[in-house]
Amino acid sequence: MISKIAAAVLLTLAGAAAHAETGWITIQGFYDANTGRDMRDYKVFGRFEGTDANADGVLKANEISYFRIGAVQYAAPTPDYPSRCNDSYHYCSLALDYQIGSGTADFKVSETWTDPEHIHYSRYSFETGGRYLVDYGSDDFYRTYLVWKDYTTMTITAVPEPSTVGMLLLGLAGTAVFARRRRG
User: Fold this and answer.
1) CB of 2 within 8 A of CB of 168?
2) Are residues 52 and 18 in contact, defined by beta-carbon separation less than 8 angstroms?
3) pLDDT digits over 102-161, tens only?
4) Strand (E) positions, 35-105?
5) What is the spatial distance between Cα 172 and Cα 184, in angstroms, rounded to a whole number?
6) Burial bucket for residue 33 (CB in 10 Å: 0-12, 13-18, 19+)
7) Which of 38, 85, 117, 139 suits 18 as a labelling partner, its CA being 20 to 30 A distant?
Protein backbone atom coordinates (compact mmCIF):
# COMPACT_ATOMS: atom_id res chain seq x y z
CA MET A 1 0.00 0.00 0.00
CA ILE A 2 2.86 2.39 0.78
CA SER A 3 4.24 1.79 -2.72
CA LYS A 4 0.92 2.96 -4.20
CA ILE A 5 1.05 6.14 -2.12
CA ALA A 6 4.66 6.75 -3.17
CA ALA A 7 3.72 6.15 -6.81
CA ALA A 8 0.86 8.68 -6.57
CA VAL A 9 3.18 11.29 -5.03
CA LEU A 10 5.87 10.67 -7.67
CA LEU A 11 3.35 10.95 -10.52
CA THR A 12 2.08 14.23 -9.09
CA LEU A 13 5.60 15.65 -8.80
CA ALA A 14 6.58 14.43 -12.27
CA GLY A 15 3.52 16.06 -13.81
CA ALA A 16 4.29 19.32 -12.03
CA ALA A 17 7.92 19.34 -13.22
CA ALA A 18 7.11 19.53 -16.95
CA HIS A 19 4.61 22.35 -16.72
CA ALA A 20 4.16 25.78 -18.15
CA GLU A 21 5.88 28.53 -16.19
CA THR A 22 4.55 32.03 -15.52
CA GLY A 23 6.63 34.62 -13.71
CA TRP A 24 6.16 38.17 -12.49
CA ILE A 25 9.30 40.32 -12.79
CA THR A 26 10.12 43.29 -10.54
CA ILE A 27 13.27 45.32 -11.17
CA GLN A 28 14.07 48.21 -8.84
CA GLY A 29 16.75 50.89 -8.74
CA PHE A 30 18.25 52.61 -11.77
CA TYR A 31 20.48 55.51 -12.66
CA ASP A 32 18.70 58.01 -14.94
CA ALA A 33 21.26 58.89 -17.63
CA ASN A 34 19.10 61.81 -18.88
CA THR A 35 19.01 63.66 -15.55
CA GLY A 36 22.09 62.23 -13.83
CA ARG A 37 20.03 61.08 -10.84
CA ASP A 38 19.93 57.86 -8.89
CA MET A 39 16.40 56.46 -8.90
CA ARG A 40 16.67 53.77 -6.24
CA ASP A 41 12.89 53.51 -5.74
CA TYR A 42 11.94 53.39 -9.43
CA LYS A 43 10.44 50.03 -10.41
CA VAL A 44 9.87 48.32 -13.73
CA PHE A 45 7.43 45.43 -13.82
CA GLY A 46 7.12 42.58 -16.29
CA ARG A 47 5.68 39.15 -16.87
CA PHE A 48 6.55 36.08 -18.91
CA GLU A 49 4.99 32.77 -19.87
CA GLY A 50 6.72 29.75 -21.28
CA THR A 51 6.97 26.00 -21.26
CA ASP A 52 10.10 24.08 -20.37
CA ALA A 53 9.69 21.88 -23.45
CA ASN A 54 12.85 19.84 -22.95
CA ALA A 55 12.37 19.58 -19.14
CA ASP A 56 15.91 20.80 -18.41
CA GLY A 57 14.78 23.29 -15.74
CA VAL A 58 15.78 26.30 -17.87
CA LEU A 59 13.52 28.51 -19.97
CA LYS A 60 15.16 29.82 -23.13
CA ALA A 61 13.82 32.32 -25.67
CA ASN A 62 12.44 29.60 -27.97
CA GLU A 63 10.31 28.28 -25.07
CA ILE A 64 8.70 31.68 -24.31
CA SER A 65 5.18 32.43 -25.54
CA TYR A 66 4.75 35.82 -23.82
CA PHE A 67 7.26 38.36 -22.51
CA ARG A 68 6.52 41.91 -21.34
CA ILE A 69 8.68 44.53 -19.65
CA GLY A 70 6.98 47.80 -18.77
CA ALA A 71 4.35 48.56 -21.40
CA VAL A 72 6.06 46.63 -24.20
CA GLN A 73 5.29 43.05 -25.18
CA TYR A 74 8.31 41.47 -26.86
CA ALA A 75 7.05 37.98 -27.70
CA ALA A 76 3.87 36.48 -29.15
CA PRO A 77 1.43 38.21 -31.49
CA THR A 78 -1.43 40.33 -30.16
CA PRO A 79 -4.87 41.06 -31.69
CA ASP A 80 -3.63 44.56 -32.57
CA TYR A 81 -0.41 43.24 -34.14
CA PRO A 82 -1.12 39.75 -35.52
CA SER A 83 2.18 39.68 -37.42
CA ARG A 84 4.13 41.39 -34.63
CA CYS A 85 7.88 41.43 -35.25
CA ASN A 86 7.52 39.94 -38.73
CA ASP A 87 6.71 43.14 -40.60
CA SER A 88 9.35 44.58 -42.90
CA TYR A 89 9.53 47.69 -40.68
CA HIS A 90 9.12 46.02 -37.31
CA TYR A 91 12.03 44.14 -35.77
CA CYS A 92 12.21 42.29 -32.46
CA SER A 93 14.66 40.13 -30.59
CA LEU A 94 14.53 38.17 -27.35
CA ALA A 95 17.32 36.32 -25.57
CA LEU A 96 16.49 34.69 -22.24
CA ASP A 97 18.04 32.32 -19.72
CA TYR A 98 15.83 31.64 -16.68
CA GLN A 99 16.73 28.86 -14.27
CA ILE A 100 13.25 27.85 -13.07
CA GLY A 101 12.79 28.69 -9.41
CA SER A 102 15.95 30.80 -9.16
CA GLY A 103 14.13 34.13 -8.71
CA THR A 104 16.29 35.88 -11.30
CA ALA A 105 17.04 35.71 -15.02
CA ASP A 106 19.32 37.04 -17.71
CA PHE A 107 17.54 38.52 -20.69
CA LYS A 108 17.98 40.99 -23.49
CA VAL A 109 14.97 42.23 -25.44
CA SER A 110 14.55 44.83 -28.14
CA GLU A 111 11.87 46.08 -30.49
CA THR A 112 12.19 48.69 -33.23
CA TRP A 113 9.44 50.04 -35.43
CA THR A 114 9.81 52.59 -38.23
CA ASP A 115 7.67 53.93 -41.01
CA PRO A 116 8.67 53.21 -44.64
CA GLU A 117 10.34 56.64 -44.94
CA HIS A 118 12.24 56.18 -41.65
CA ILE A 119 11.02 59.56 -40.36
CA HIS A 120 9.26 58.30 -37.26
CA TYR A 121 10.36 55.39 -35.16
CA SER A 122 10.11 53.84 -31.74
CA ARG A 123 12.78 51.81 -30.05
CA TYR A 124 12.59 49.81 -26.84
CA SER A 125 15.28 47.70 -25.28
CA PHE A 126 16.05 46.18 -21.92
CA GLU A 127 19.10 44.21 -20.86
CA THR A 128 19.77 42.77 -17.42
CA GLY A 129 22.94 44.28 -16.07
CA GLY A 130 22.79 46.93 -18.80
CA ARG A 131 20.09 49.44 -19.64
CA TYR A 132 16.43 50.18 -20.17
CA LEU A 133 15.81 52.42 -23.18
CA VAL A 134 12.55 53.84 -24.51
CA ASP A 135 12.94 56.16 -27.49
CA TYR A 136 10.09 57.64 -29.57
CA GLY A 137 10.29 59.70 -32.74
CA SER A 138 13.21 61.33 -34.42
CA ASP A 139 15.48 63.87 -32.72
CA ASP A 140 14.91 62.19 -29.33
CA PHE A 141 11.32 63.44 -29.10
CA TYR A 142 10.82 61.26 -26.02
CA ARG A 143 13.58 59.28 -24.42
CA THR A 144 13.98 57.31 -21.22
CA TYR A 145 17.46 55.98 -20.61
CA LEU A 146 17.89 54.10 -17.33
CA VAL A 147 21.11 52.30 -16.46
CA TRP A 148 21.43 49.17 -14.32
CA LYS A 149 23.65 49.81 -11.26
CA ASP A 150 25.09 47.72 -8.43
CA TYR A 151 22.04 48.62 -6.29
CA THR A 152 19.57 47.42 -8.94
CA THR A 153 17.62 44.37 -7.80
CA MET A 154 15.52 41.91 -9.77
CA THR A 155 13.10 39.35 -8.42
CA ILE A 156 10.98 36.85 -10.29
CA THR A 157 7.99 35.37 -8.55
CA ALA A 158 6.83 32.16 -10.19
CA VAL A 159 3.09 31.67 -10.49
CA PRO A 160 1.94 28.05 -10.79
CA GLU A 161 -0.34 27.33 -13.73
CA PRO A 162 -3.91 26.27 -12.88
CA SER A 163 -3.32 22.87 -14.50
CA THR A 164 -0.30 22.31 -12.24
CA VAL A 165 -2.30 23.18 -9.15
CA GLY A 166 -5.08 20.87 -10.40
CA MET A 167 -2.64 17.97 -10.89
CA LEU A 168 -1.20 18.55 -7.43
CA LEU A 169 -4.67 18.53 -5.85
CA LEU A 170 -5.64 15.42 -7.81
CA GLY A 171 -2.49 13.65 -6.65
CA LEU A 172 -3.10 14.64 -3.05
CA ALA A 173 -6.71 13.47 -3.28
CA GLY A 174 -5.50 10.11 -4.66
CA THR A 175 -3.02 9.84 -1.82
CA ALA A 176 -5.80 10.56 0.71
CA VAL A 177 -8.03 7.89 -0.88
CA PHE A 178 -5.25 5.28 -0.68
CA ALA A 179 -4.50 6.21 2.95
CA ARG A 180 -8.19 6.03 3.90
CA ARG A 181 -8.62 2.61 2.25
CA ARG A 182 -5.61 1.38 4.16
CA ARG A 183 -7.07 2.50 7.50
CA GLY A 184 -10.57 1.15 6.75
Assistant:
1) no
2) yes
3) 888 898 888 887 777 767 777 788 889 888 887 776 655 667 889 999 999 999 998 766
4) 37-51, 58-60, 64-69, 72-75, 90-99
5) 18
6) middle
7) 85
Contacts of 77 (CB under 8 A, 6+ apart): 83, 84
Domain of 14, in residue numbers: 1-19+161-184
CA distance readout (Å), 5 to 10, 12, 15, 52, 168 = 9, 11, 16, 27, 14
Please check whether residues 124 and 59 belong to one and the same domain: yes
pTM of the model: 0.69
Q: For the chain, how many structural domains are there in total? A: 2
Considering the domain architecture, whether residues 60 and 120 belong to the same structural domain is answered as: yes
CA-based nearest residue to 146, from 25, 26, 37 = 37
